[in-house]
Structures are given as C-alpha cells and as structure tokens.
C-alpha cells in the first residue's frame, strides 16, 4: 500500500502515476495468481472453495460493501479519541497531496484486487488464516513507531477479510471491503485536514 501511495506523490503526470500503480499492484496480483495456480493446480483463484455456488459470487460483494462502510464509520468515530489516527491522517495527506478522483479510484481498486489475490487468494490457502494475516499486517508498517496501532488495526482487518473469505468461499466480500475502505479513506484524507484528537475530558480555561 505504501509503495503505491509513494507512486502517487511522484512528480510525474497523472497517466504516468496511474501506470505505476497498475504495474505494481498488477504484479502483486500476478504473484498471487501464479502461486495459487501452481500450488492448487487450478486457475480459479477467485473461488477459494471450488464447491461454492456461482450465485454467491453476486451477493457476497454486497456483504463486503456493507462491512466496509461500517469499518470506515467506526474509525471516523474513533478519530477524535486516539492521537494516532489524526497523526496517520496527516502523514498520508502529506504523502498523497491531492490526486485526481480517477487516480484515487484506480489506487483503491488495484490495491484491493492485487492484495486480496495474494493474501486471501493464495497465501490464506497455503499458510492459513493467522500466518497470512500476520504477513499482511507486517506489510502495513507506519512511517513512525508511534503509529504502530495502524499495523495492529491491519491485523484485525486482515483477520476479518480472511474469515469472510473462508466463510463465503470466494474473494468477492474481501475485495469489496478492501475497496470501500481504501476509497473512502483516500478521498477523506486528501480532501479533509486531520481532526484534532481529544484525550480525557475537556476543561474550560481558567480566567
């Protein structure tokens, strides 16, 4: 994710940045695809359960959209309570600048699909829920140690995405959650300044 964000900050025009993002996350997705194809002798990486019925491919993304909206609103509510959330907001806002909406949609879509093909499509099947989630969380390393809760929250979200994949038997829900969370956060970060956090009760100033 961070590599993709740094690509958006590069001093090149929008189409060049878009190509960089597509190339990076396309490579991530291809690694997942070929890993799964070789390990499972199957090109059907989207259905992690071969017995999953095709109709599930249509309703599971709707579940993911709903969960993604809930996750984002939960973090919005917590932003004023924890210092690390507005600090992380500021870090990514400085890194991203103000890309065009089309670039943000591209980043959200390619990162969601590429990462889910790798972590939930191939790695979950090969290494299991906990190890694949741990690797996913460790790749979300913050720029400063004080922002370590971002890695911890990535671990929790990764467990949710892995559990969703095992429950539904396909990547639809996980990709939808990932896309909705990334898209909303990217637009929010690049269009709004960080909210000040409040730790403990606010007391009126003494006269």
Question: What features would you describe in this structure?
Answer:
With 207 residues, the protein is mostly helical. It has one domain (2-41, 55-191). The chain contains eight helices and no strands. It has helices spanning 2-9, 14-40, 56-78, 84-96, 101-127, 129-138, 149-168, 172-191. Residues 1-11 and 200-205 have low confidence and may be disordered.
Q: What secondary-structure arrangement, pairings included, does this model have?
A:
Blueprint: H1 2-9, H2 14-40, H3 56-78, H4 84-96, H5 101-127, H6 129-138, H7 149-168, H8 172-191
Features:
207 residues; mainly alpha; 8 helices; 71% helix; globular; disordered N terminus
What helical percentage do the residues reach? over 70%
Radius of gyration: 18 Å
Q: What ranges have pLDDT less than 50 throughout 5 or more consecutive residues?
A: 1-11, 200-205
Look at the helices and sheets and give the structural class: mainly alpha
* Chain-averaged pLDDT: 85
- Give a count of the beta strands, DSSP E runs of length 2 or more: 0
In oligomeric terms, what are we looking at?
Answer: single chain
Q: What is the succession of H and E elements?
A: HHHHHHHH
Count the helices. How many? Answer: 8
Beta-strand percentage range: under 5%
N- and C-termini, Cα separation: 48 Å
What is the approximate shape?
globular
Reported for the largest beta sheet, the result is: none
Integer count of domains: 1
């Amino acid at each position: 994710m961070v590599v993709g964000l740094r690509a958006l900050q590069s001093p090149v025009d929008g189409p060049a940045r878009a190509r960089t993002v597509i190339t990076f996350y396309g490579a991530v997705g291809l690694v997942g695809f070929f890993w799964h194809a070789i390990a499972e002798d199957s090109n059907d990486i989207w259905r992690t359960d071969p017995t999953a019925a095709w109709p599930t491919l249509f309703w599971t993304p709707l579940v993911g959209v709903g969960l993604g909206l809930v996750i984002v609103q939960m973090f919005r509510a917590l932003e004023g309570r924890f210092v690390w959330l507005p600090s992380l907001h500021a870090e990514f806002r400085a890194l991203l600048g103000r890309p065009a909406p089309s670039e943000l949609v591209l980043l959200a879509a390619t990162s969601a699909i590429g990462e889910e093909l790798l972590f939930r499509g191939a790695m979950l099947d090969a290494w299991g829920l906990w190890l694949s989630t741990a690797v996913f969380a460790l790749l979300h390393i913050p720029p400063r140690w004080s922002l370590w809760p971002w890695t911890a929250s990535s671990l929790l979200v990764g467990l949710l995405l892995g559990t969703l994949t095992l429950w539904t038997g396909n990547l639809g829900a996980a990709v939808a959650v990932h896309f909705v969370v990334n898209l909303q956060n990217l637009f929010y970060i690049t269009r709004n300044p960080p909210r000040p956090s409040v730790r403990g009760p606010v007391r009126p100033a003494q006269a």
